[in-house]
Structures are given as C-alpha cells and as structure tokens.
Amino acid sequence: MKIKSFWSWVWIALGTLYFVVPLIATFDFSLRAKKGVLSFLAYQNVFKDPNFWRTIGFSLEIAFFTIIVAIILVLPTVYWIRLKLPQLRGMIEFISILPFVVPAIVLVFGLIRVFSGPPFHLTNTFFGTYILMVAAYVVLALPYVFRAIDTGLAAIDVRSLTEAAQSLGANWATILLRIILPNVRVAILSSAFLTLATVVGEYTMASFLVGIKAFGPYMSLIGQNKTYESSSLAIISFLVTWGFMALIQLFNRGKADGSSLAGA
To answer: Which of 74, 145, 175, 245 is most buried as measured by Cβ atoms within 10 A of its Cβ?
Structure first.
C-alpha cells in the first residue's frame, strides 16, 4: 500500500509540473518586456490597446447569445426526451458529440458555402454573419450544454415533479420555467461558463466569419507581431478560463451545501 501511495504521489507531482512549469515560464517571459527588469509593461500595453477591449467585448456578446440560444434549444429537448422519449436518448447523445468529430474548419466552410448564397445570403451583411456565427457556436457548444443539462436532469425525478405540477394545474411552460429550470440551475450555469470559455478563445470559425473583430483572431495577430504581449494574453486568457471554472465549483458547492441543509 505504501509503495502504491508513493507512486501515486509521484505521478500527481509529475502531472502538476507538466502543467505548471510552462505557465510559470510564460508568465516570467511576459514580465521581461523591459530589458533586465521584471515589469507588467506587456500587460499595460495590452490593456491600453482599444482592440483588446473591442474584440473581447464582441466575443463576450457572441458568447452571451450563444448561451441563450443553446439553452433554449437543449433544455426543453433533453427534458422531453427524459420524460416521454427515453429510447431516443442514445441517438441524441451521439448527435451531441458530433462537434468533437467534425473539425471546426469543415463546419465553418460548410456553413459559408450553404448560407452565403441564395436564398439566405447571410454572409452579405454584418447582422447575418453574426447570426451564422452564433449558430456555429451553438453547434460547437452542444456537447458541453447537452451533457451538463442531461446530468442535471438525471439528478432529479423529472416524472414525479411533472406529474405533481400537472396535478396542481400547471401548464408545460410553467413546469419548465418554474419547476425544472430552478432544479437544474447549477447545470445550466456550468454549461454557460464552459460555453463562454470556449467561444471567447475560439479561433477557426471566428477568423473565417468576422476576422480580427473576435478575440481569438486578435490573440493570433498579437502573437505574430508582439512577443511579450502575446505571452501576457496567454496568461490573461488562462486566468479568465480558470476563473469560469472556479465559478462553476463555487456554484456547485453552494448547491451541495443547500442540499445538505435541506436533508438535515
């Protein structure tokens, strides 16, 4: 047992070093914009750049609409499958993982080819391009949203809650919005944060649809022209992503504490 425990800690330590050492090296490099002095000059340059705020604001806006559309599509679908069509769950689960199989470059070229011509002409206007971009990101976020919401619904008794609400005269909209939605709030927040982190840093689709307007292509452009600023952007994006992960854990912990109190 002691030998197994020792090797377990060895592998944990090696895994930690594998992830932490490159981050420390990147952070250290980002502080060397001034020769011979450690400074936050690269971070100051990034925050002073109006394109940084414009691109990250645009990506956050696209992420917000992506989250809304994805939840509106996935939550009623997964709820209805668990309630009425459980035999279709396997097929829907398979469909939900297709974005992992189909490369983003193939997906974006297919969308451009189909929706740039008649009768849609979506790529001819900024608004149409934004709609196409949100739709593409909904597909890209489908695995995260589906699995998070499906796990949340699996943790509650959907059928009993629905029958109890119907016995009190609730309609389907009331059941979904006032009964099911509050019970899967943590799952929805988890899927939202995962989607947000994915959309903000995504490069392939953004570069072909809107170019430098999005944060992902902006990071790529900075990486080609400014060495220290690109390292600082990598650290900033890492902190943003892990900030979202921390929020997920915070909400999950709050939910668990609330459940424990309710059980007591």
So the answer is: 145
How far apart, in whole angstroms, are the C-alpha atoms of residue 248 and residue 142?
18
C-beta neighbour count of 151 within 10 angstroms: 15
Q: What is the 3-state secondary structure (H, E, C) of 35-75?
A: CCECCCHHHHHHHHCHHHHHHHHHHHHHHHHHHHHHHHHHH
Torsion over CA: 100, 102, 105, 111 (sign): negative
- Higher-confidence residue of 121 and 141: namely 141
CATH class for domain 39-254?
A: mainly alpha
| The predicted structure's pLDDT at residue 263 | 36
Instruction: For residues 16 and 21, give the distance between their C-alpha atoms in angstroms, rounded to a whole number.
Output: 8
Please tell me which residue, 109 or 241, carries the higher pLDDT value: 109
Domain boundaries, the chain: 39-254
**CA–CA distance from 209 to each of 34, 96, 107, 129 (Å)?**
36, 23, 12, 7
Contact residues for 138 (Cβ-Cβ < 8 A; gap 6+):
66, 69, 70, 73
pLDDT at 252: 65
Q: If DSSP codes are grouped into helix, strand and coil, which group holds residue 34? A: strand
